[in-house]
Automatic annotation (TrEMBL):
SUPFAM superfamilies: Thioredoxin-like. It holds the Pfam family Thioredoxin_7. Residues 1-21 form the signal peptide. This is AGR2 protein. Its main location: endoplasmic reticulum. One of its GO terms (cellular component) is endoplasmic reticulum. It is found in: Endoplasmic reticulum; Secreted. One of its GO terms (molecular function) is dystroglycan binding. It comes from Ploceus nigricollis. InterPro entries: AGR/TXD (IPR051099), Thioredoxin-like_sf (IPR036249).
Amino acid sequence: AMEKGYVCIFLLLIVISCALAKDAGKKDSKDTTAKPKLPQTLSRGWGDQLIWTQTYEEALFRAKHSQKPLMIIHHLEDCPHSQALKKVFAEHKDIQKLAEKFILLNLVYETTDKNLAPDGQYVPRVLFIDPSLTVRADITGRYSNRLYAYEPSDISLLYSNMQKALKLLKTEL
């Protein structure tokens, strides 16, 4: 009677390990067909193929030394407006391409720098900073009560504002 018990347990182990292996196999095959994804930690879904800085201080340092403008996106994971903007931003091929010319930072918390909240702390908001570390308060969205807010329908305006941030840079330097 003892032996039968062992056989049952042994079979159960085989079934479990096969199921786990099958799961792992599924995951692998899915990943290989898609582009290899970088860990999403810093991008938080705003562009997994882009290089994102980790802190505001690092972003300022890189902007200054690379002579690239800095683009800062303030957002929150549980804010539906942030989520909606993130989705169109991440799926917009031209924006993702243009974003490579920027130092990039997305933040889910506020910094102590009041210059990053010229008209208040709201999300989502997008600000540009040039390599001289001046906040480009002149590059705004379409809402007079929240100058740096963008809705998903404003994505082409955000794109042209990114171009503006790069263009003005060339003429000023």
